[in-house]
Amino acid sequence: MQPQRDPRGLWLLLLSLFLLLFEVARAGRPVVSCPAACLCASNILSCSKQQLPNVPHSLPSYTALLDLSHNNLSRLRAEWTPTRLIHLQSLLLSHNHLNFISSEAFSPVPNLRYLDLSSNQLRTLDEFLFSELQALEVLLLYNNHIVAVDRCAFDDMAQLQKLYLSQNQISRFPLELVKEGAKLPKLTLLDLSSNKLKNLPLPDLQKLPAWIKNGLYLHNNPLHCDCELYQLFSHWQYRQLSSVVDFQEDLYCMSSKKLHNVFNLSFLNCSEYKERAWEAHLGDTLTIKCDTKQQGMTKVWVTPSNERVLDEVANGTVTVSEDGSLHFQQVRVEDAGVYTCYAMGEAFNETLSVELKVYNFTLHGHHDTLNTAYTTLVGCILSVVLVLIYLYLTPCRCWCRGVEKPSSHQGDSLSSSMLSTTPNHDPMAGGDKDDGFDRRVAFLEPAGPGQGQNGKLKPGNTLPVPEATGKGQRRMSDPESVSSVFSDTPIVV
C-alpha cells in the first residue's frame, strides 16, 4: 500500500516551479545596457565629449537625463532614437554642429522639461518646432545663428517658464511671446540680449506686468536712442527690476553711429522720470493692480487712513478682488490719497505705494458738469466772435449810405443847429417884406472839407447844398452870402 501524499506539498512544489520559470524568463529577456560611448549612473546617461556623429542607439527607456553635449551632431531627425523615452526630463545637446531639427524630433520625449540647444548653428526656428514639448519649462537657444523666429514656433508650450535667445542675430522683437494673455502664460524670463534689436514696441512693453519685465533682458542691443526709451528703462530702474539693475552698464543705444548709455542721454534733453499717479473722476469705476515682480504673492491693501481693505465691501465702494487688485465701484472725493500694497511671497516680500487723484467732477453721463478747460475755451471763442461782430457788422456810416430823399423840413442843409425865433412865413404871401421875414441863427462847426480857419471857405470851394423841395425853401446862390454865413459870429437872416 502506497503512502498518501500531502496536498499542501504538491501546491508548494507547483509554486516553486512557477517562480523558477519566471526567473528563467526574466534572465532570458534582452536587457538594454549602457551604450559603450556613454557613462551611466542610475538613470543618468553622459555621452559628452565623445566626438559622436550620431546619437547612440538602444538608449535605456528609464533614462531621465541624457547628456550629448560637445559632440559632432549636425542633424536631429525624427528617428534619432528608436526607443520612446517617456521618463526623459533633461536633454543636453549644446556645443554641437546642429543646423537642422525635424518638427517631429521631440515626439519620443513628450515629458521633457529641460532642453539645451545652445552653442549650435541653428539659423531659423520654424513653426510648430517645439509644439510636442508641452511639458517643457526651460529652453536654451543662446549662441546660435538665429535670424528669424516664426510666430508659431513656440505654440502649445503652456508650461514654458524660461527662454534664452541671447547671442543671436534676431532683429524683430517677438512681442507675441510676452504680451499679456499670450501663448506663454507662465513665461517669467526672456533673454534677448546681445542681438540686433534696433526698435522696440515701447508702448506695449510699458503695459507689461512687472513680473514679465523683471525677466526681460534687452542689454547689448543697438537700440535707437530717444526719450521714450529713456523713460521706459528709468521706470524699470525705479522699480528695481533685475533686467535693468543687474545689467545697467550694458544697456546702451545708438545715435549718430555712437554708443550711449540709456541713462546718460543728456544730448536729448529728456525730462526726468516721475512716477505718475492714478487719476479718476467722480463716479468712475477703477481697478488698481498690485504690480509685483513675482506671481502668486499674497497681497494686502491699506487705505490712506491706515485701514486694511477687506475682500468684501469696505468704506462703501472699495474692495480687493481675487487677483489682489484694488477695485473702486464708484470713486469719491474722499477716496483720494496714497494706497499701500503689501505683497508676501516665497522668495521675498514687496511693498508698493500708489497715489490716487480724484477730480471733483464727473467725466461722462447725462447730468455731468462741464470741464473747466472746456468752459474757458467756449468763453474765449464767444468773445472773439463778439469782437468780430462789433468791428465788421456795425451800422453803416452816413457817407456809406445810398442816395436818400431830401429832408422835408425847411432850412439850409448845414451841419449846424437851426433855431427858429418866429414861425416861417411864405415871402410870396404878400405884405411888407420887413414884416414877415424869417430870423434864423446858425452855429457852425469849423470842420469839413473845403473849410478854412474860423469856418470860412477857401477860395474856389463851395458848400454842397441839397436841392430844395416845396415852397418857401431858400436857395443859396450868392457866394458872398455863403461866406458871410461861415463867419465867426452868428448872423440874423
From TrEMBL:
GO biological process assignments: brain development; cell adhesion; cell differentiation; positive regulation of cellular component organization; positive regulation of nervous system development
SMART domains the record matches: IG, IGc2, LRR_TYP, LRRCT
InterPro entries per the UniProt record, alphabetical: AMIGO, Cys-rich_flank_reg_C, Ig-like_dom, Ig-like_dom_sf, Ig-like_fold, Ig_I-set, Ig_sub, Ig_sub2
Domain Ig-like: 283-353
Pfam families, sorted: I-set, LRR_1, LRR_8
Signal peptide (UniProt feature, chain positions): 1-27
GO cellular component: dendrite; perikaryon; plasma membrane
UniProtKB keywords: Cell adhesion, Cell membrane, Cell projection, Developmental protein, Differentiation, Disulfide bond, Glycoprotein, Immunoglobulin domain, Leucine-rich repeat, Membrane, Neurogenesis, Phosphoprotein, Repeat, Signal, Transmembrane, Transmembrane helix
Region entry Disordered, spans: 405-493
Top-level taxonomic group: Eukaryota
Segments of skewed composition (Polar residues): 408-424
Keyword Repressor set for record: no
Major localization class: membrane
Subcellular location: Cell membrane; Cell projection, Dendrite; Perikaryon
Quaternary assembly: Homodimer, and heterodimer with AMIGO2 and AMIGO3. Interacts with KCNB1.
Role according to the record: Promotes growth and fasciculation of neurites from cultured hippocampal neurons. May be involved in fasciculation as well as myelination of developing neural axons. May have a role in regeneration as well as neural plasticity in the adult nervous system. May mediate homophilic as well as heterophilic cell-cell interaction and contribute to signal transduction through its intracellular domain. Assembled with KCNB1 modulates the gating characteristics of the delayed rectifier voltage-dependent potassium channel KCNB1.
Protein name stated in the entry: Amphoterin-induced protein 1
Species this chain originates from: Enhydra lutris kenyoni
The encoding gene: LOC111143554
